[in-house]
Amino acid sequence: MSLGLAGASTASANGLDPNRLFPADPASRTLAAQIYAGIKDLPIVSPHGHTDPRWFAENEAFPDLAQLFIVPDHYVFRMLFSQGIDLADLGVPRTDGVLSETDSRKIWRLFAENFHLFRATPSRMWLEHSFQQVFGWTKRISAETADEAYDHIADCLTRPEFRPRALFERFNIEVIATTESPLDDLNWHRQIRESGWSGRVITAYRPDAVVDPEFEGFAANVETLGALTGEAATTWQGYLKAHRARRAYFKSFGATSSDHGHATARTENLSQAQAEDLFQKALAGACTGEEADAFRGHMLTEMARMSLEDGLVLQIHPGSFRNHSGGVMQRFGRDKGFDIPTQTDYVRALKPLLDAVGLEKDLSIILFTLDETAYARELAPLAGVYPTLKLGPAWWFHDSPEGMRRFREMTTETAGFYNTVGFNDDTRAFCSIPARHDVARRVDCAYLASLVTSGRLDEDEAFEVAHDLTYRLAKQAYRL
Amino acid sequence: MSLGLAGASTASANGLDPNRLFPADPASRTLAAQIYAGIKDLPIVSPHGHTDPRWFAENEAFPDLAQLFIVPDHYVFRMLFSQGIDLADLGVPRTDGVLSETDSRKIWRLFAENFHLFRATPSRMWLEHSFQQVFGWTKRISAETADEAYDHIADCLTRPEFRPRALFERFNIEVIATTESPLDDLNWHRQIRESGWSGRVITAYRPDAVVDPEFEGFAANVETLGALTGEAATTWQGYLKAHRARRAYFKSFGATSSDHGHATARTENLSQAQAEDLFQKALAGACTGEEADAFRGHMLTEMARMSLEDGLVLQIHPGSFRNHSGGVMQRFGRDKGFDIPTQTDYVRALKPLLDAVGLEKDLSIILFTLDETAYARELAPLAGVYPTLKLGPAWWFHDSPEGMRRFREMTTETAGFYNTVGFNDDTRAFCSIPARHDVARRVDCAYLASLVTSGRLDEDEAFEVAHDLTYRLAKQAYRL
Amino acid sequence: MSLGLAGASTASANGLDPNRLFPADPASRTLAAQIYAGIKDLPIVSPHGHTDPRWFAENEAFPDLAQLFIVPDHYVFRMLFSQGIDLADLGVPRTDGVLSETDSRKIWRLFAENFHLFRATPSRMWLEHSFQQVFGWTKRISAETADEAYDHIADCLTRPEFRPRALFERFNIEVIATTESPLDDLNWHRQIRESGWSGRVITAYRPDAVVDPEFEGFAANVETLGALTGEAATTWQGYLKAHRARRAYFKSFGATSSDHGHATARTENLSQAQAEDLFQKALAGACTGEEADAFRGHMLTEMARMSLEDGLVLQIHPGSFRNHSGGVMQRFGRDKGFDIPTQTDYVRALKPLLDAVGLEKDLSIILFTLDETAYARELAPLAGVYPTLKLGPAWWFHDSPEGMRRFREMTTETAGFYNTVGFNDDTRAFCSIPARHDVARRVDCAYLASLVTSGRLDEDEAFEVAHDLTYRLAKQAYRL
């Protein structure tokens, strides 16, 4: 049932104005609300994300507020850290043996005392929406309300209707994709399937560990890939066969896409001899930085060729400078909020791939960016002409009301709506999924209403496009 | 007469709201409409474009809807192609001998069935404006209305009031510039002049074929240039003389500007010996890529020096990666929607030219960009201080409501209005010219109204600036 | 007293709408005005600027309108120059011995005749606000009113209440920072202190002349630094000691910050041996461009280390291509409006500095940019995680209503409000200081009101944040 979501449009609370994110002028606002009313209860299609399939396999209760909303969420702890709060005090585990805080109530209080730091951020919207819509907590978070909120939600978490599968159903999720390495055995996915539960949780193929020569343990990973598939994966042909086999295995657990998060959008279309040569160097740990980069770029083209065979949609997520702080990497490890966007070129970078397969109508490549300057200059012009290319939604730091607005304003005029793919929540914060989709739906409805008010779209079209952006395009683009 | 245009402000139809593109809040909207009312009927000044002078020379009927609106318009066919529709099925001629569709009604139907792809694009606004204001067709284009629309407009096209010269007059065009190569004999222009028709159609000097060492047939083109001018064009001095002669010839057919569409904004100010050396290498086909680029850059400075002598306005249109898809280039040739914008530096690139001639008050250089990031960062600061520099309007992919709004918001505060040059339609789609100018006028009026409403401009000034942006600045900047 | 400022909200005149810069829709506008009413009379905190301490030391009358508003203000004369008006005719002194105009009334008339060039620029807002609020002149500037305005303001300038200290007090300035070279003796600051006047005028440490090997007279400057401090400044250790001593001297005159305006954001963390080697090369005038750049980059890290000791806040102002026109540099010298922004990378450039000191909670580094593309892509993500980093306000060409709006829209969602530092006026135009702060306050109130109207911030929070942005954050970030 979708009442949890639907409630947002009638009930008001701290930060949850029923007309939030709609245009300010009354005519556009009224129209936006009407368009939104028509799509707010549509099922959630979540084709790209990072929820843990174990949740749905085991269906155990989530532990507590801190473990649910703070410790695992780099959006949250990075903001607190930026204001001088220790990651260890927020419970973020250290990799050097020093102990971090484990008292969840203490962690929660520290967060609650500093809740003002999140003013006007999407984290604030997601958190308040989750607290209210998922747990029925409607007061503002603060030092004063911290304990009451903690207890309220702790109580919820003990109840069956707050277990993962119950929430999945309450959130009205039609399908959700997780993301796994080719080296993952997908046993949680197997367990979900074998449980007989009707929730549709699928995997996606994320091969960084076995296509990036600079990934920790690359050579060993390739050996494991060989062992998993029975292919001679340390030969070039065996390696490609192993990918094909593993992709087929992932498809058997519902995968409809692969995902590639390189530092740049570089692609290459090397000869097989050149590729083989780089592959052997990579296994030997002898690649220069440039050679590693070329190999990664070539593997995108190989993956695209495999997609032509097996139909997996290819997602390219470039442009993040990973683990920017040496000190944090050393003490806390990867993925601690220190991935910083960089300038990203697409026009020259994608040409080898596009010259190889860019006109293939059966291939679908979805491009994302952390560099908004590419929207109007490069991405919309590319997606607005190449039949293989579609634009992924505003992503990561840009997955926010202003970011989503800029995405539409800078891509629609050149690429239209139909070269975009609906919304991705791209999150591991399960309880925020309805909130994130709700923000996207509201921003799109606001944009559509403004188009109508300014005479750029007819009203009947706005209703149809809203449905497309919310539901149809995601299913179509991801072949769900 | 301008009634065709004027009608837009009183009649409503699909996509043609009389208040379209005006601000949403009632006060700004009313003011925008008032400002617009004062300038909407001003004559069209079109100082940069790609209409075919043959139309006005021969004044024959335009063939049909597909040949008028689809086959020649890369904005239109690129969007359809991006969704998997073959260019050949849209009638785009192949260069490899394979036949493309020639049944115009069939092409039109294919377009009409897919008209929804253009939602919220400027193409949609231009097309609907043309259908309604030029041809009196007011229903929405769709599979259902395709044949009726086709017949309606086919009927129009047989009538004398839809011939090129009649439309030129109906569109209230005061002057229009076409664009020709120095190798063009300008015979269509001669024929227009000799016909005694009063329409002012002028040419512009676009010397890519004879200044770009990488242009197909560069050496032969230079020889032809010599033959046309009687100069020894394969010597450096003769080559420069030939340019001077050809510019004078273009001036005799009304040219007031030259136009330069290099891949970057690079300029050079080489010694004459260095330039001569590169020129001889270029003729011998022996330039490296770097040398060809340097030669193009130097020729901009030579062209600027000639402008100081003959008064032609110099237009620089950089930043397009031409013919991006190898496959499409091979099968369909140049200019098939695969020109993609790239990052463009102006600050370092223009310094050699500006150090040579940038302070000359009699020289006028108009800068365009496909990289909007340069507006506030580079172009407005440069145009806001160098007396030679002016900013061309939002261009190509940015010639759209959002693109024009961003242009004003990102350039006005630093460069003001008076370092801009009014609107260019830059189009070969003749029937869309009133639509394009109307969009620009509306967006400017909306912007001006918002400035007044927010206390940044007095009301009387807004009316004056609207007139300047619509009419006076284009005439002044292009010396028309 | 702040009545001068407060008047703006009740009196209307040319360009001074009491609701200027507020949102257009009535609900947001009313709320913006309410929020503004709560902060408009707060004292001005001006932690970064270029006013002349001599004004406050000597407290003599300002000379005349031209010397006050035109001759020293590159915002003003660059716009006039861009339209073909000679800098010499505007009284800008030449460095080549040729005389410039000295008749201030004549200069003023030339400006007044061309006042329309400033339409919709921030200069226009600042000038009109100053004329009205400081001098009580409310007519629009034009050829017709030029003489009357000149006489009116000339009369004001003779009166004691228009002397620098009286204006300082009328402007309700709580503290203002000037900017001086380490080679400055700070005698004006000494004179202010010894005068017993209560106005708080502090200095800031701007060491370009002694940290940039390419600065005119670098080696001689370092010798002077040694002489001033009694340190052997031509040895590496002595040079560092001399900096420490000079910073302490600046602190004794109130300095709480240093300021660094390199061409790029490059930092280095060299070994002491490498740094010493570069330093000796620099003294010998033997640095390559690359080495000079590396030395500047390393000195930022050294300055950061000193900040850890002495608590000065480190400001980084990169990205300006200085003195772009060779011809203007030759005839008029530096700082004549020809500093042009360039693309600026922060992610790679700052890594050496950040790896060295980026996690130090006692260090405060404020980043500025002339490249707005870095706001959402690089600066907000960096400031939103590194505890040392804060974002300076929209700067220079972007210190304008649209620029400030873009700053908030592109940084808040990732960095929040509390990683920003309030407003800097960064000006030498003393009379424009209330105007500039007023623009910033209004734009921030408009932004906050829009957040409330769109359900992204609660109303009580908006009032609190407005106070923070106007007053508290500047004091806290600059340790004032």
TrEMBL record, chains A, B, C:
Which class of enzymes does this protein belong to? isomerase
State the superkingdom: Bacteria
What gene does this protein come from?
A: uxaC
Q: Which UniProt keywords apply?
A: Isomerase
Q: State the pathway, as annotated in the record.
A: Carbohydrate metabolism; pentose and glucuronate interconversion
List the HAMAP family: UxaC
The question of whether NAD is a record keyword is answered with no
The catalytic activity of this protein is classed by the Enzyme Commission as: 5.3.1.12
Gene Ontology MF terms = glucuronate isomerase activity
According to the UniProt entry, the coiled-coil residues are none
Does NAD appear among the keywords?
Answer: no
Q: Which family does it belong to?
A: Belongs to the metallo-dependent hydrolases superfamily. Uronate isomerase family.
Q: Which InterPro entries match?
A: Metal_Hydrolase, Uronate_isomerase
Kindly list the residue ranges recorded as spanning the membrane: none
Alphabetical list of NCBIfam families matching this protein: PRK02925.1
**Catalytic reactions of this protein:** aldehydo-D-galacturonate = keto-D-tagaturonate; D-glucuronate = D-fructuronate
Q: Spell out the protein name for this chain.
A: Uronate isomerase
